[in-house]
Amino acid sequence: MPNGKLPNNLKITEDIIVKERIRIPKKEALYKTGDPFSSLYAIRSGSFKTLIEYSNGQSQITGFFYRDEVLGLDALNNKAHASYAIAMEDSEVCLLAVKDIEHMLEEFTEIREVMVGLVGTEISRSHNMILTLGSLNADQKLAMFLQDTAQKQETMGYSPNEFILRMRREDIGNYLGLTLETVSRLFSKFSKEGILTINNRNVHILNREKLLAIQKS
Q1: What is the DSSP letter of 5?
Q2: Mean pLDDT, the chain, as a whole number?
Q3: Which residues form the HTH crp-type domain (predicted)?
Q4: Which of 92, 118, 104 is nearest to 20 (CA)?
Q5: For the chain, what is the total number of helices (H) and then of strands (E)?
Q6: N or C end of the chain: smaller count of CB under 10 Å?
Q7: pLDDT (tens digit, 9 = 90+) per residue, 69-88?
Q8: In Å, what is the CA distance from 43 to each residue of 6, 57, 110, 184, 188?
Q9: In this structure, is residue 4 part of a structural domain?
Q10: How many CB atoms lie within 10 A of CB 192?
Q11: For the chain, how many structural domains are there in total?
Q12: Alpha carbon of 202 to those of 75, 162, 166: distances in Å?
């Protein structure tokens, strides 16, 4: 195949790599720490949280992932997963088998470029999260989280201003390094200031400009 390019009539995810789809019920693990690296997982529907567990039994949430995002990149270096991926709702993923990925990386430059981009994005995301969360106050952390969630909703073709939080407030606090009480207090504060309304997990952002201003303050 000239230049290792994919024919225009082939779709990378559907026709080339994807061999199987699996459904993961809410609260079930897609993979666990120590599981051997056998596949990457493209989220077809639903959402996941990733977390690491420490020897003292505590855990740290490292990210929230939605449709069209890829899970499992943590296993690329050591050939074993370094974290858990837990479904936050009934979800479905497409399996991108390692042996097929390795073949495609050698055969097609387009897929190789996609994979390099995915790995680079994941490394950048993790690095930025550590640096950013360590330097922000509580208001800025929640504002950043809501902005990020809104952007992901928009990327998926949904409204960036009205969405359902798939995670618990405890999970938001764990991810941001805040207590549950602080997260609840900030939601109430943002509501009183006319930035958003929230009913259970239903969020309606009324003023994204003000939310962005808080994040950058």
Answers
A1: P
A2: 83
A3: 136-209
A4: 92
A5: 6, 11
A6: N
A7: 889 988 877 889 999 999 99
A8: 22, 28, 20, 29, 32
A9: no
A10: 8
A11: 2
A12: 34, 7, 9
Coil vs helix vs strand at 125: helix
Collapsing DSSP to helix, strand or coil, 117 comes out as: helix
Alpha-carbon span 133 to 153, nearest angstrom: 21
**Lowest model confidence (mean pLDDT) among 97-106, 155-164, 203-212:** 97-106
Query: Tell me, what DSSP letter sits at residue 169?
Result: H
For residues 123-148, average pLDDT = 78
Tokens of 33: 């720490």
Angle at 36 between CA 34 and CA 41, to 5 degrees: 105
Residues 161 and 112 in one domain: no
Cα 8 from Cα 159, distance rounded (Å) = 31
Last residue of a domain, one of 110, 131, 152: 131
pLDDT digits (tens, 9 = 90+) for 83-130: 999 999 999 998 877 666 666 666 656 655 665 556 556 655 555 666
* Residue where one domain finishes, among candidates 72, 105, 131: 131
**Angstrom distance (rounded) from CA 52 to CA 41:** 18
